[in-house]
Design brief:
This protein is of the alpha/beta class. The chain contains 9 helices and 9 strands. Helices cover about 35% and strands about 20% of the residues. It binds pantoate.
Length: about 300
Protein backbone atom coordinates (compact mmCIF):
# COMPACT_ATOMS: atom_id res chain seq x y z
CA UNK A 1 0.00 0.00 0.00
CA UNK A 2 1.00 3.59 -0.64
CA UNK A 3 1.10 4.40 3.05
CA UNK A 4 4.25 2.32 3.40
CA UNK A 5 6.11 3.97 0.57
CA UNK A 6 8.21 6.90 1.67
CA UNK A 7 9.21 9.50 -0.87
CA UNK A 8 12.20 11.77 -0.56
CA UNK A 9 15.52 10.03 -0.06
CA UNK A 10 16.29 7.49 -2.77
CA UNK A 11 14.20 6.43 -5.74
CA UNK A 12 11.46 3.99 -4.82
CA UNK A 13 10.26 1.30 -7.22
CA UNK A 14 6.61 0.31 -7.02
CA UNK A 15 4.56 -2.15 -9.02
CA UNK A 16 0.99 -1.43 -8.01
CA UNK A 17 -1.30 1.38 -9.03
CA UNK A 18 -2.52 2.00 -5.48
CA UNK A 19 1.10 2.29 -4.28
CA UNK A 20 2.10 4.89 -6.84
CA UNK A 21 -1.14 6.78 -6.27
CA UNK A 22 -0.42 6.83 -2.54
CA UNK A 23 3.00 8.42 -3.08
CA UNK A 24 1.60 10.87 -5.59
CA UNK A 25 -1.24 11.94 -3.30
CA UNK A 26 1.12 12.33 -0.33
CA UNK A 27 3.44 14.53 -2.39
CA UNK A 28 0.57 16.68 -3.58
CA UNK A 29 -0.77 16.99 -0.03
CA UNK A 30 2.70 18.32 0.84
CA UNK A 31 2.40 21.00 -1.84
CA UNK A 32 4.38 19.33 -4.63
CA UNK A 33 3.34 19.12 -8.26
CA UNK A 34 3.58 15.62 -9.73
CA UNK A 35 5.08 14.85 -13.15
CA UNK A 36 4.81 11.56 -15.02
CA UNK A 37 7.09 10.34 -17.82
CA UNK A 38 5.52 7.25 -19.40
CA UNK A 39 8.06 4.96 -21.12
CA UNK A 40 8.50 1.40 -22.28
CA UNK A 41 12.02 1.28 -20.90
CA UNK A 42 15.32 0.55 -22.65
CA UNK A 43 16.01 4.14 -21.81
CA UNK A 44 18.24 6.37 -23.86
CA UNK A 45 19.25 10.00 -23.78
CA UNK A 46 15.93 10.98 -25.38
CA UNK A 47 14.03 9.55 -22.41
CA UNK A 48 16.44 11.21 -19.99
CA UNK A 49 15.64 14.58 -21.61
CA UNK A 50 11.98 13.90 -20.85
CA UNK A 51 12.93 13.15 -17.25
CA UNK A 52 14.93 16.38 -16.97
CA UNK A 53 12.00 18.36 -18.38
CA UNK A 54 9.67 16.67 -15.88
CA UNK A 55 11.97 17.44 -12.97
CA UNK A 56 11.94 21.09 -13.97
CA UNK A 57 8.16 21.13 -13.83
CA UNK A 58 7.34 19.26 -10.64
CA UNK A 59 8.43 18.40 -7.13
CA UNK A 60 7.77 14.67 -7.55
CA UNK A 61 8.87 12.89 -10.73
CA UNK A 62 7.41 9.50 -11.55
CA UNK A 63 8.71 7.45 -14.49
CA UNK A 64 6.72 4.45 -15.64
CA UNK A 65 8.29 1.51 -17.45
CA UNK A 66 5.76 -0.83 -19.00
CA UNK A 67 6.06 -2.63 -22.34
CA UNK A 68 2.42 -2.34 -23.24
CA UNK A 69 1.12 -5.43 -25.07
CA UNK A 70 -2.03 -3.77 -26.40
CA UNK A 71 -0.14 -1.32 -28.62
CA UNK A 72 1.71 -4.08 -30.50
CA UNK A 73 0.00 -5.80 -33.42
CA UNK A 74 0.27 -9.49 -34.30
CA UNK A 75 3.72 -10.14 -35.76
CA UNK A 76 5.20 -6.98 -34.24
CA UNK A 77 8.13 -6.99 -31.83
CA UNK A 78 6.38 -7.19 -28.42
CA UNK A 79 8.26 -10.35 -27.40
CA UNK A 80 11.67 -9.11 -28.46
CA UNK A 81 11.19 -5.45 -27.48
CA UNK A 82 14.35 -4.62 -25.47
CA UNK A 83 13.88 -4.85 -21.69
CA UNK A 84 16.57 -3.63 -19.30
CA UNK A 85 14.88 -2.83 -16.01
CA UNK A 86 17.95 -2.85 -13.75
CA UNK A 87 19.99 -0.67 -16.07
CA UNK A 88 17.02 1.67 -16.55
CA UNK A 89 16.51 1.95 -12.79
CA UNK A 90 20.17 2.94 -12.33
CA UNK A 91 19.86 5.62 -15.01
CA UNK A 92 16.70 7.01 -13.43
CA UNK A 93 18.23 7.00 -9.94
CA UNK A 94 21.20 8.96 -11.28
CA UNK A 95 18.78 11.54 -12.73
CA UNK A 96 17.16 11.98 -9.31
CA UNK A 97 13.81 10.40 -10.23
CA UNK A 98 11.62 9.91 -7.17
CA UNK A 99 9.44 6.97 -8.17
CA UNK A 100 9.81 4.20 -10.76
CA UNK A 101 6.42 2.65 -11.50
CA UNK A 102 7.04 -0.73 -13.16
CA UNK A 103 3.78 -2.67 -13.10
CA UNK A 104 3.48 -6.28 -14.27
CA UNK A 105 1.05 -6.96 -17.13
CA UNK A 106 -1.65 -8.33 -14.74
CA UNK A 107 -1.66 -5.03 -12.85
CA UNK A 108 -2.47 -3.02 -15.96
CA UNK A 109 -4.62 -5.69 -17.66
CA UNK A 110 -6.29 -7.86 -15.03
CA UNK A 111 -8.16 -10.98 -16.23
CA UNK A 112 -11.34 -10.00 -18.05
CA UNK A 113 -10.04 -6.57 -19.04
CA UNK A 114 -12.26 -5.14 -21.78
CA UNK A 115 -12.31 -1.33 -21.73
CA UNK A 116 -10.36 0.67 -24.29
CA UNK A 117 -9.93 4.32 -25.21
CA UNK A 118 -10.39 5.04 -28.89
CA UNK A 119 -9.36 8.45 -30.22
CA UNK A 120 -10.99 8.96 -33.60
CA UNK A 121 -9.59 10.81 -36.67
CA UNK A 122 -6.15 11.75 -35.33
CA UNK A 123 -5.37 8.09 -34.71
CA UNK A 124 -6.43 7.02 -38.21
CA UNK A 125 -3.73 8.12 -40.72
CA UNK A 126 0.03 7.48 -40.76
CA UNK A 127 1.01 4.92 -38.08
CA UNK A 128 -2.67 4.40 -37.30
CA UNK A 129 -3.33 3.14 -40.82
CA UNK A 130 -0.27 0.86 -40.82
CA UNK A 131 -0.59 -0.41 -37.25
CA UNK A 132 -4.30 -1.06 -36.64
CA UNK A 133 -5.12 -0.82 -32.94
CA UNK A 134 -1.79 0.77 -32.03
CA UNK A 135 -3.14 4.09 -30.82
CA UNK A 136 -6.07 2.39 -29.08
CA UNK A 137 -3.46 0.54 -27.04
CA UNK A 138 -1.43 3.69 -26.43
CA UNK A 139 -4.42 5.80 -25.40
CA UNK A 140 -5.73 3.06 -23.14
CA UNK A 141 -2.46 2.51 -21.29
CA UNK A 142 -1.74 6.23 -20.97
CA UNK A 143 -5.25 6.78 -19.57
CA UNK A 144 -4.60 3.99 -17.07
CA UNK A 145 -1.20 5.43 -16.12
CA UNK A 146 -2.81 8.83 -15.59
CA UNK A 147 -5.42 7.17 -13.42
CA UNK A 148 -2.77 5.43 -11.33
CA UNK A 149 -0.37 8.34 -10.92
CA UNK A 150 -2.77 11.29 -11.09
CA UNK A 151 -0.03 13.56 -12.46
CA UNK A 152 -0.35 17.32 -12.83
CA UNK A 153 1.88 17.18 -15.87
CA UNK A 154 2.89 14.40 -18.27
CA UNK A 155 5.89 14.57 -20.58
CA UNK A 156 6.19 12.88 -24.00
CA UNK A 157 8.70 13.00 -26.85
CA UNK A 158 7.93 14.90 -30.01
CA UNK A 159 9.54 12.10 -32.03
CA UNK A 160 6.22 10.29 -31.60
CA UNK A 161 4.36 13.19 -33.09
CA UNK A 162 1.10 11.42 -33.85
CA UNK A 163 1.09 9.80 -30.40
CA UNK A 164 1.50 13.17 -28.78
CA UNK A 165 -1.44 14.58 -30.76
CA UNK A 166 -3.59 11.57 -29.92
CA UNK A 167 -2.82 11.95 -26.21
CA UNK A 168 -3.53 15.68 -26.26
CA UNK A 169 -6.89 14.96 -27.91
CA UNK A 170 -7.73 12.28 -25.32
CA UNK A 171 -6.85 14.62 -22.46
CA UNK A 172 -9.00 17.39 -23.93
CA UNK A 173 -11.94 15.17 -24.83
CA UNK A 174 -12.01 13.31 -21.51
CA UNK A 175 -11.28 16.49 -19.55
CA UNK A 176 -8.35 14.90 -17.78
CA UNK A 177 -6.71 17.34 -15.34
CA UNK A 178 -3.22 16.83 -16.81
CA UNK A 179 -1.00 19.23 -18.73
CA UNK A 180 0.70 17.43 -21.61
CA UNK A 181 4.18 18.67 -22.48
CA UNK A 182 6.09 17.73 -25.65
CA UNK A 183 9.90 17.64 -25.68
CA UNK A 184 11.92 17.99 -28.92
CA UNK A 185 13.48 14.90 -30.47
CA UNK A 186 17.00 14.10 -29.31
CA UNK A 187 19.38 13.14 -32.16
CA UNK A 188 22.84 11.65 -32.47
CA UNK A 189 25.49 14.01 -33.83
CA UNK A 190 24.82 12.65 -37.34
CA UNK A 191 21.09 13.32 -37.07
CA UNK A 192 19.72 9.86 -36.24
CA UNK A 193 16.76 10.27 -33.92
CA UNK A 194 17.22 8.32 -30.69
CA UNK A 195 14.92 5.31 -30.41
CA UNK A 196 14.95 2.12 -28.38
CA UNK A 197 14.62 0.25 -31.68
CA UNK A 198 17.97 1.61 -32.87
CA UNK A 199 19.42 -1.24 -30.78
CA UNK A 200 18.11 -3.64 -33.46
CA UNK A 201 20.17 -2.00 -36.23
CA UNK A 202 23.29 -3.58 -37.73
CA UNK A 203 26.11 -1.21 -38.74
CA UNK A 204 24.97 -0.99 -42.39
CA UNK A 205 21.32 -0.57 -41.33
CA UNK A 206 22.29 2.31 -39.06
CA UNK A 207 23.92 3.99 -42.08
CA UNK A 208 20.69 3.49 -44.03
CA UNK A 209 18.67 4.91 -41.13
CA UNK A 210 20.42 8.26 -41.57
CA UNK A 211 18.27 8.63 -44.69
CA UNK A 212 15.34 9.61 -42.47
CA UNK A 213 17.02 12.73 -41.17
CA UNK A 214 18.43 13.53 -44.61
CA UNK A 215 14.94 13.27 -46.11
CA UNK A 216 13.57 15.73 -43.55
CA UNK A 217 16.44 18.13 -44.26
CA UNK A 218 15.96 17.81 -48.01
CA UNK A 219 12.26 18.64 -47.70
CA UNK A 220 12.99 21.68 -45.56
CA UNK A 221 15.60 22.76 -48.14
CA UNK A 222 12.93 22.60 -50.84
CA UNK A 223 10.53 24.60 -48.67
CA UNK A 224 13.29 27.18 -48.19
CA UNK A 225 13.54 27.41 -51.98
CA UNK A 226 9.80 28.06 -52.24
CA UNK A 227 8.37 24.57 -52.83
CA UNK A 228 4.92 24.28 -51.24
CA UNK A 229 3.38 21.33 -53.07
CA UNK A 230 2.91 18.45 -50.64
CA UNK A 231 3.33 15.84 -53.37
CA UNK A 232 6.67 17.36 -54.46
CA UNK A 233 7.94 17.34 -50.87
CA UNK A 234 6.74 13.77 -50.33
CA UNK A 235 8.36 12.61 -53.57
CA UNK A 236 11.66 14.25 -52.66
CA UNK A 237 11.63 12.69 -49.19
CA UNK A 238 10.74 9.29 -50.60
CA UNK A 239 13.62 9.62 -53.10
CA UNK A 240 16.12 10.27 -50.30
CA UNK A 241 14.81 7.34 -48.23
CA UNK A 242 15.02 4.95 -51.19
CA UNK A 243 18.48 6.20 -52.19
CA UNK A 244 19.63 5.40 -48.63
CA UNK A 245 18.40 1.82 -49.09
CA UNK A 246 15.36 2.14 -46.82
CA UNK A 247 11.99 0.54 -47.62
CA UNK A 248 9.45 3.32 -47.37
CA UNK A 249 6.32 2.71 -45.31
CA UNK A 250 5.05 6.26 -45.68
CA UNK A 251 6.29 9.76 -46.37
CA UNK A 252 3.37 12.12 -45.93
CA UNK A 253 2.80 15.82 -45.55
CA UNK A 254 0.00 16.53 -43.11
CA UNK A 255 -1.49 19.43 -41.21
CA UNK A 256 0.54 19.77 -37.99
CA UNK A 257 -2.50 19.78 -35.71
CA UNK A 258 -5.33 17.94 -37.48
CA UNK A 259 -3.03 15.53 -39.37
CA UNK A 260 -5.28 16.02 -42.39
CA UNK A 261 -3.95 16.28 -45.93
CA UNK A 262 -3.06 19.79 -47.10
CA UNK A 263 -3.28 21.49 -50.51
CA UNK A 264 -0.24 23.66 -49.73
CA UNK A 265 2.50 22.91 -47.22
CA UNK A 266 2.66 26.54 -46.08
CA UNK A 267 3.00 28.18 -43.67
CA UNK A 268 3.78 24.97 -41.76
CA UNK A 269 3.33 21.30 -42.46
CA UNK A 270 4.25 18.09 -40.75
CA UNK A 271 6.43 15.75 -42.77
CA UNK A 272 6.01 12.32 -41.18
CA UNK A 273 8.21 9.41 -42.24
CA UNK A 274 8.22 5.68 -41.53
CA UNK A 275 10.68 3.33 -43.21
CA UNK A 276 12.31 -0.04 -42.71
CA UNK A 277 16.04 -0.56 -42.30
CA UNK A 278 16.16 -4.32 -42.74
CA UNK A 279 13.35 -5.61 -40.47
CA UNK A 280 13.37 -2.56 -38.22
CA UNK A 281 10.66 0.03 -38.67
CA UNK A 282 11.80 3.54 -37.84
CA UNK A 283 9.88 6.80 -37.74
CA UNK A 284 10.86 10.43 -37.75
CA UNK A 285 9.19 13.75 -38.43
CA UNK A 286 9.72 17.45 -38.80
CA UNK A 287 7.42 20.41 -38.95
CA UNK A 288 8.44 22.09 -42.21
CA UNK A 289 8.31 25.86 -42.14
CA UNK A 290 7.96 28.16 -45.17
CA UNK A 291 10.53 30.94 -45.56
CA UNK A 292 9.78 34.00 -43.43
CA UNK A 293 7.60 32.08 -41.00
CA UNK A 294 8.96 32.09 -37.46
CA UNK A 295 9.73 28.85 -35.67
CA UNK A 296 7.59 27.72 -32.83
CA UNK A 297 4.14 27.18 -34.24
CA UNK A 298 4.47 23.65 -35.35
CA UNK A 299 2.35 22.13 -32.65
CA UNK A 300 3.88 19.28 -30.82
CA UNK A 301 6.47 17.95 -32.87
CA UNK A 302 6.11 14.49 -32.00
CA UNK A 303 5.42 7.43 -33.52
CA UNK A 304 9.33 3.63 -32.06
CA UNK A 305 6.90 3.83 -30.29
CA UNK A 306 5.90 0.67 -29.26
O1 LIG B 1 6.06 6.29 -26.22
C1 LIG B 1 6.08 5.22 -25.61
O2 LIG B 1 7.11 4.70 -25.19
C2 LIG B 1 4.76 4.47 -25.41
O3 LIG B 1 3.94 4.54 -26.53
C3 LIG B 1 4.01 4.97 -24.15
C4 LIG B 1 3.58 6.40 -24.29
C5 LIG B 1 4.89 4.78 -22.92
C6 LIG B 1 2.73 4.14 -23.95
O4 LIG B 1 3.01 2.77 -23.81
Amino acid sequence: MGAFVVWGADMVTVQRGDEVRGVSRAARAGGARVALVPTMGCLHEGHLELVRAAKGLAGLTVVSIFVNPTQFGPGEDFDRYPRALERDAALLRAEGVDVLFAPPVEEMYPPGFGTFVNVERLAEPLCGARRPGHFRGVATVVAKLFHAVEPDVAVFGEKDYQQLQVIRRMVTDLQMPVTVVGVPTVREADGLALSSRNTYLTGPEREQALGLHRALERAQGLMDAGEERPEALEEAARGVLEAAGLRVDYAEVRHPETLERMDRAAPRALLALAAYAGQTRLIDNRVLVAPGVGEGGGGPAACPNG
